[in-house]
TrEMBL record:
Identification of the protein by name: MobA/MobL protein domain-containing protein
Organism: Photobacterium carnosum
Domain MobA/MobL protein span(s) in chain numbering: 18-213
Keywords: Coiled coil, Conjugation
Annotated Pfam families: MobA_MobL
Length: 286
């Protein structure tokens, strides 16, 4: 079943992030941070399917290479607590092929980020297993003909975050419909949807691998407990519905019986009134 997940966060130096290192990890590649000389080598990472960079047409040529792009970000940012990138992580429908999911993500990025002037560095993970998802790293500065200009503070607005989350659900549903997959996702919380079910947690690659080996992971066990609790909750709700339905059927039956009795009583009263009028008429005729 297609699930909805769209989380948005910011990578900054204050929380120990490096845009070059983060990109290398998400791409499963080897990159050197030219500012620090640190080499980030994640080339043995096996869950990366493919990576790409998409950017506005007017972007300088270096922006199309992820190593050059994020090294330029590191060079541009001077503050020790600088915000380096925004990351959007989305769950991909496992009912779709990788080609279909690539089209979904690229269209979403073009419509919501690239069209506004951001560069999107995208990595697809685990599209051949049970947990397909994509990491989208976004630049935070305006583009100029030479490189990066000022930070765009409007991109940090809460209204943008809400819009991006909602638009991901719209994009997924549009793509599912296009590919004749009869499923839908919803960006709203289960509570806002009126669904009395506890949401499951994201299990993650490491936990999935443990479960495949027959080991019990903490997150996998937590999900099983949530599923069991939801089953009990559903059963309780179903029993309540059945009880209400039974009571309502009894009420309808009782009301029908009362209606029949009232109709019969009205018919008796009507006949009695008719006889009384006839008696009166006979009395006058005498």
């Amino acid at each position: 079943m297609a699930i909805y997940h769209c989380s948005i966060s910011v990578g900054s130096r204050s929380n120990g992030s490096s845009s070059v290192g983060s990109c290398a990890y998400r791409e499963g590649s080897k990159k050197e941070d030219l500012k620090t000389g640190i080499i980030h080598d994640y080339s043995r990472k096996i869950d990366v399917i493919e990576s790409c960079v998409i950017c506005p047409d007017h972007a300088p040529s270096f922006c199309r290479d992820s190593s050059q792009l994020w090294n330029e970000v590191e060079r541009t940012e001077k503050r020790k607590d600088a915000q380096l990138f925004r990351e959007v992580t989305v769950a991909l429908p496992k009912e779709q092929t990788q080609d279909q999911n690539r089209e979904l993500v690229l269209n979403y990025c073009h419509e919501n980020f690239v069209s506004k002037g951001m560069i999107a560095s995208i990595s697809f993970h685990e599209s051949k297993t049970e947990n397909p998802h994509a990491h989208i790293m976004l630049t935070m500065r305006e583009l100029t003909s030479d490189g990066f200009g000022q930070k765009n503070r409007e991109w940090n607005s809460k209204s943008n975050l809400r819009e991006w989350r909602e638009n991901w659900a719209i994009s997924v549903n549009r793509n599912l419909d296009k590919n004749n997959i009869n499923q839908k996702v919803d960006h709203r919380s289960l509570l806002d949807q009126g669904v009395l079910r506890t949401p499951q947690i994201h299990v993650g690659y490491a936990a999935l691998e443990m479960e495949k080996r027959g080991e019990i992971s903490e997150r996998g066990q937590k999900n099983r407990e949530i599923i069991q609790g939801n089953d009990v909750k559903s059963e309780t709700i179903e029993q309540g519905i059945q009880s209400i339905r039974h009571s309502f059927n009894n009420y309808k039956r009782e009301q029908a019986e009362i209606a029949v009795q009232e109709k019969a009583l009205m018919e008796v009263q009507k006949n009695q009134e008719k006889e009384n009028r006839q008696d009166v008429d006979r009395g006058f005729s005498l």
